[in-house]
């Protein structure tokens, strides 16, 4: 398991990678948010809130296990729609589903008056730094949304033009270098 060095993270965000079975790698990103788990849960499951920060649009709520939802990737070079079934949905605690062929597991843990949000996802080793930088920026945008100061979604090809994303990508690439 590798941890991103201190210079590749901010006080409220950490990222690490681990080698799983075969060629599978895991990316784990943790973000400390000043918002209660119920508010964070809504941001993770409500289609209107997902449109403000996530790298995909959802055609329905992700809050109920067993529900089928289409996730449409935003600003991708070519259209990508994933039909998924929410595998686990434990309100304000745990959410699991697949997007683009990879499982996403969101864990919410109360942390004082806020939440420790942890994302676990499988990822191709070649894209770990990109994924870490992308999710880091998505969490930045989510945090602003939850503060009542939405700044607009930053995802896909648009993220590649963002100077902060490029800085994070370079730092994560250096931290996760073999």
Write the layout of secondary structure elements.
Layout: E1 2-3, E2 13-19, E3 25-33, H1 37-45, H2 47-53, E4 56-58, E5 68-73, E6 81-85, E7 88-90, E8 94-99, E9 102-111, E10 114-123, H3 128-146, H4 157-160, H5 163-175
Antiparallel strand pairs: 1-2, 2-3, 3-10, 4-5, 5-6, 7-8, 8-9, 9-10
Describe the structure.
- The chain is of the alpha+beta class and 178 residues long.
- The protein has one domain: 2-Layer Sandwich (Alpha-D-Glucose-1,6-Bisphosphate, Chain A, domain 4).
- Helix content is 29%, strand content 34%.
- The chain has helices at residues 37-45, 47-53, 128-146, 157-160, 163-175; strands spanning 2-3, 13-19, 25-33, 56-58, 68-73, 81-85, 88-90, 94-99, 102-111, 114-123.
- α1 packs across α2 (47-53) and α3 (128-146) packs across α5.
Q: Major β-sheet, in short?
A: 7 strands, antiparallel
Which residues sit in consecutive blocks of at least 5 with pLDDT less than 50?
A: 1-11
What name goes with the CATH superfamily?
Answer: START domain
Number of strands: 10
Order of helices and strands: EEEHHEEEEEEEHHH
From the spread of the alpha carbons, the general shape counts as globular
Determine and state the CATH class: Alpha Beta
Distance between the termini: 11 Å
CATH fold title: Alpha-D-Glucose-1,6-Bisphosphate, Chain A, domain 4
Tally the helices: what do you get?
5
**Architecture, CATH level 2?**
2-Layer Sandwich
- Specify the structural class: alpha+beta
Radius of gyration from CA coordinates: 15 Å
Strand content: 25-35%
Mean pLDDT: 88
Helix residue percentage: 25-40%
| Order of the strands making up the biggest sheet | 1-2-3-10-9-8-7
What is the domain total for the residues?
A: 1
